[in-house]
Every structure is written in C-alpha cells, then in structure tokens.
What we know:
Layout: E1 10-15, H1 22-33, E2 37-39, H2 40-50, H3 53-63, H4 70-81, E3 89-93, H5 99-108, E4 116-121, H6 124-133, E5 135-137, E6 143-144, E7 158-159, H7 166-188, E8 193-197, H8 202-220
Parallel strand pairs: 1-3, 1-4, 2-3, 4-8
Antiparallel strand pairs: 5-6, 5-7
Bound molecules: adenosine monophosphate.
Amino acid sequence: MSLLGSNSAVRLVMLGPPGAGKGTQAERFARAHGIPRISTGDILRETVLAGSEMGRAAREVMDAGGLVGDDIMTGIVTERLSRPDVGAGFVLEGFPRTVPQAMALDGLIDRTAPLVVVDIEVPEDVLVKRLQIRKICGTCGWTAPPGTTVCAKCGGSLITRTDDHEVVVRQRLALYGRTTQPIVDYYESRNTFRSVDGDQTEGSVAADLSAAVASVLGGTR
Ligand code: AMP
C-alpha cells in the first residue's frame, strides 16, 4: 500500500536540471504508487521516432539544446492530463520548464487537491559528468541505468542522446538557469514545495523524495 494513504491521489511535479535524475526518480515513484509518469521529453522523443512533421521540428530544437514552444508543450500536457488514468494521480516530469508553462498548469488542474512540487538539486559539475555517460535505447528511447549494455525493455542497442554531447549539455544547463530556475521561484513560496538533495545514491534520493511528498500531503490534508 502507498505510504501516502490508500485514498491519496498524489499529484507530483518534479523539477531539476538535466541529469538530476528526474526521470529515474519519477519512474520509481510512479511505479511504487501505481500512477502514470508523464515525461514531456519522452513524449517528444516518441513524436520524433514516429517521424511526423511536428517530430522533425521538435528534433531540431531538441538537438540544439533549446526548448519547444510553450503552446505546443501546453497542448501536449493538456491532452495527457485529460486522460482517465490521471484520476489516481500522476508524476509530471520535464514540465513545466518555463513560467508560462507553470501558469498554464495551474489553470489546468483542480486546485482543491495539492500539487506537490519537488526540486532535485545537484551541483553543475556532477550534472555534466552524469550526462556525458548517460545512454538511451536507440529503438524505444528507454534511459538505461549506468553499467547497462542493452535495453532492458526491448533489447535494442544503447546510444548517447543527441542532446547529451558536451556542447549541447552546457547549452541546456545554461538555458535551465535562465528559463527553468525561475519556476523554482514561482513555486518556492507555496507550502507544497520541497527540495531534495539529488547528489546521493538513487535509493537515498528516492527515500528523501517519498519523505518530502509525505510531509506535504500530511500537512495539507
Ligand atoms: P528531457 O528528456 O526532459 O531532458 O527533454 C529533452 C528535450 O525536450 C529538452 O531539452 C527540450 O528540448 C524538450 N522539452 C521537454 N520538455 C519540454 C518542455 N516542457 N518545454 C520545452 N521543451 C521541452
């Protein structure tokens, strides 16, 4: 049973720079609580693999380490959050990335239940090292844990993400500082906001994340 109680719909937004471990932690948390993990990066990578016109346009922006437009991203998340499986809660990862996206999210969700926002903090030099060794599956896009040699989901070969090469990594981190860090300021004053130290083992970050979410939900119910 969930640590957070049997009738809790956990609505969690994970913030943090590229390489902070948002995806790994979001997947782990979503699995433990039986709720969907919604990753806008994954949705975009699926669109790219599908080869649609929107996918081609998104790929150019992603490969350059830029951000896809707020209207497109808000449209994607609006559609995803309208599906019935989010009734039990969700983990949203990679969105919002700009203040307009954060404002759009506030308009999308029912404000009577808490939106828990957790920022995973990791020093920049650690992020650069992590991103340079990160591998994903070239076939299905799955992010492989360090030490993995083939995709555990489909058996495909692992490759470096086109946006994880050093020049693009530095560009993405700089963009994060300029564009996404302000959303930490946007949420920080809320009593549903928490920070977690992401420069620890995966298990310790997961434990701190669960405790952070429990502390918010315990205090707001
Ligand atoms: P991620 O897997 O979250 O690191 O996302 C990979 C890339 O997808 C980012 O570097 C952006 O180019 C794009 N992307 C993902 N989510 C968003 C978003 N919410 N707003 C704008 N661009 C996004």
